[in-house]
Amino acid sequence: MNKYLLYPGCSMDSSAKAYMESLNSIVEPLDLHLEEIEDWNCCGATEYLGINLIPAYSLIARNLALAAKQTSDTRTVVAPCSACYLNLAKADYYMQERPTLGAKVNEALAAGGLEYKAGTLDVRHLIDVLVYDVGLDAIRKAVIHPLSGLKVVPYMGCMLPRPDYQHRWSDHEHPTELDDLLRALGADVIDYPLTTSCCGGHMTQIGPETAFELIHRLVSDADERGAQMMVTVCPMCQMNIDAYQNEMNHFFGTNFHMPILFFTQLMGLAFGRKPNEVGIGVELVSARNALAHIGVEVPVTEEPAAPRKKDEGLPMPRRWTKHEGKKEAVK
Amino acid sequence: MTERVGVYVCHCGSNIAGTVDVVDVANWAAEKLGRQGVIIAREYKFMCSSLGQELIEKDIKELGLTRVVVAACSPHLHEKTFRTAAKNAGLNPYLVELASIREQVSWVHSDKAVATAKAKAVVSGAVSRVIENRPLEEIKVPINPNTLVVGGGIAGIQSALEIANAGFHVYLVEREPSIGGHMAQFDKTFPTLDCSACILTPRMVEAGTHPNITLLTWSEVTNVAGYVGNFHVTIKKKARFINEELCTGCGICQEKCPKKVIDDVYEAGLGYRKAVYTPFAQAVPNFPVMDKENCTYFIKGTCKACEKFCPTGAIDFNQQDEMLHIDVGNIVLATGYDLFDARRVSNYGYGRLPNVFTSLEFERLSNAAGPTSGNIVLRDGKTTPKSVGVIHCVGSRDKNFNNYCSVICCMQGLKFAHLVHERTGATVYNFYIDMRTAYKAYDEFYQRVLEEGTLFVRGKVAEVTNAARNEREKGKLIIQVEDTLAGKQRRIPVDMVILSSGLQPRKDAKEVGKMFGISCSMDGWFTEKHPKLDPVSTMTEGIYIVGCAQGPKDIPSSVAQGAAASARVLDKILQKEVALEPIKASVNKEMCSGCRICNGLCPFNAIAFIEDDKVTEINPALCQGCGTCVAACPAGAISGTGFSNEQIIAQIDGLLLRNLEVQEAV
């Protein structure tokens, strides 16, 4: 039995609902026991640490303190989200390495009647425990419908393997954990040199052109290699490539259709779950055609059309694209 | 108080006098340490000069000094100088003590008052100690004139030949089937572009046929006992499965052997050999070896094709490993280096991207005797590259891997550029952090390669990828690099990438070092006695290190070191006997409980347990006087000659100026 404390993180309840649903679907076949940390809070994502260090670390450490308090018979915290994992691991590491920081954070925690002694918990990512604790053999055994014929590129994202405080990953530039896991499910794994390249993160909000460039690199290379879909371990990566693919296409004048799913969704399918049980069908770039290659039929869910807004005021000019910009420059 | 002590404080120019008031120290010693027996204290500009030495000698003779303290540099530097001076004046050299007020005082302090006070304390400690010193006699042992050279690369070959040519016997032990080392793998050598084999093979043949050299290839040293002049060495001669008396080296067995194996050693993984093989045509000796792990007969029990076709019946499947025991007086270690494993730098894609090559792979690729007969082609075996990128400092000067500079990679990268340019006409880029082309005719070669049109980009390569971003990059390897001279990021598409991998210590360097009783530096290279003035000796007498075993170096430096170590060996042999430092540990058998705690601690293998008496004994000829066992003995049964409890306690009392308090109380 593999027992862990689960820190789900905010996105699992919203943009990455499919991740949570699919995670729930693989718990039983792999004999995983996930005990949610009670009263957990947001980890501050990628922004807060850049703004104010002590409050940011305190926000993260509150979760660790709660987890340590809750510890029944495990001291391992599992985070499915790469940003959450990185933040929790970072707080645990730096509170230990920099005693002054640790003391200040504990001072803040004390206001809520909590304390955390750095180093008392193991902070790990979901794929780490699946590959190294549960093991590829156990995963292979649980496979009912192998994904053979499904061409996938494994996309780990940039936050997971670096800086790797506890030396958990096979490599920092080209880790192969996700490749191995997908191969265990029977998928045709294509070597993806951009597996740890950045998806743009929150640049989609503050500098979309930069993010589009990064998303374009990822998607076009996956497409070039003949991938039918990308597979990720990170809610942020999934959202950027899924939700912003259309805008990226518009920006570059391209027409990519590259679905991106969570690895747990494919695990669920391989373990015999139905597409709707693992959150398939809610992605914006539909995985329907890709999954048809392996005989998985995704039922069409008819969404009620949003009521059309009445045009008010004057029409806007068309949105500017890079493509047009070039044409104009030529003139 | 019967001893008559003289104290001599050295200025060492401004090295000591700049931070320590040496006149004050001398006056203080004469005044305050008088009751301890100091009858004279002098200061002098350079105590180590002949005038300084004469000063001491004169005082010994005229004032009848019985003890001498020289407050100067570390004993490592000039202890011998002053001991010799004392000896010349008729005083036992071990009655001289050095107080290190340079390395331990003036060089590490800046406050003159504090430094002067500390210098006084150090001198006081030395005076207290020297009074407890006892006269000692040097131990003399005869030297066995035979020498063991471990490693048959160019450094080892050079060393063996020099000693053998002087008329003394050498055992040259090599782990691989042939001598030659890494140099045998190269096509050309920088900066002159000599054919590597052409300059190396005559030396190999000379070593192989020299009447004074016993060549032991496919052999490894497994045990070393003894001490300078008298080492007892055990060598494992691995079974070749070839009768060397009958074999003519005709090569029919290799031709007929049906088993093809990737050659990871000589061909750097880029070519094949048979299960029975000589690594290359000019191998010395020319007898093949059978690779038991891959031989079909040893795996399946049938085949024996080699045996059927051998015209002289030299194949012997029943051969066993043989243990040879030899006695030698000196040992030269020339064990070489391993190439840094470029797969560790995963962002350069070696092992993942087919057309990324290591430096050794490229050496084989460009070698006329290599797997492609010297055609520089991509991994598909036929396409000639139109553009090639050479990346420097792979695994070197990188805090993620090795901090040190691997010395040869810059010149090696230039050589590659020249060869690619000459043979394929391809565009060549060199990506470097700094160009390091020191030594004779090296920078001229750099200029030449520049003029040939090789492009140089200064910047550490971030990654090598095959993820193209545009049509120009499709199907290429793209080198992403910050061009620090142009101040911008560049993406340069090329067909082939060569990683100029660094050098690193042999995988088993630590164990080998332990076996021979020498230590490794933090990076894992064997440690020399003095980095500048004694680079081929080690802290263990009679063991020398040459070539890359001591640190990364090129062929000329390796050859120079090989020859240098031979001169040291010959010096020892010609002395016929060697004087050992009498500073030794000894066991008081009455007090020894036989607990054996000290047995495993001795770095020089000098401690043996006597089963009959159930006590430990120390071999005085082997003991280097390091004191590890003295400190470890729970019963206090071991004492170090020259470092007795009395001496140490007196020195501590002196350092703490307790000697003054006692006197004042009296």
Describe what you observe in this structure.
- The complex is a heterodimer of chains A (331) and B (666).
- By secondary structure, chain A is an alpha/beta fold.
- Chain A has 2 domains: 124 residues, Up-down Bundle (Glutathione S-transferase Yfyf (Class Pi), Chain A, domain 2); 148 residues, Rossmann fold (3-Layer(aba) Sandwich), CATH 3.40.50.
- Chain A contains 13 helices and 8 strands.
- Chain A has a 4-stranded parallel sheet, sandwiched between helices.
- In chain A, α6 links the parallel β5 and β6.
- In chain A, α8 crosses α10.
- Chain A is globular, with a radius of gyration of 21 Å.
- The C terminus of chain A is likely disordered.
- Chain B contains 18 helices and 34 strands.
- Chain B has a 5-stranded parallel sheet with strand order 10-7-6-18-29, covered by helices on one side. A 5-stranded parallel sheet of chain B has the order 20-27-21-22-23.
- In chain B, β6, α6 and β7 form a beta-alpha-beta unit.
- In chain B, α6 crosses α7 and α6 packs parallel to α15.
- The relative contact order of chain B is 0.11.
- The mean pLDDT of chain B is 93.
Annotation keywords:
heterodimer; A: 331 residues; alpha/beta; Glutathione S-transferase Yfyf (Class Pi), Chain A, domain 2; Rossmann fold; 2 domains; four-stranded parallel beta sheet; globular; disordered C terminus; B: 666 residues; FAD/NAD(P)-binding domain; Alpha-Beta Plaits; 5 domains; five-stranded parallel beta sheet
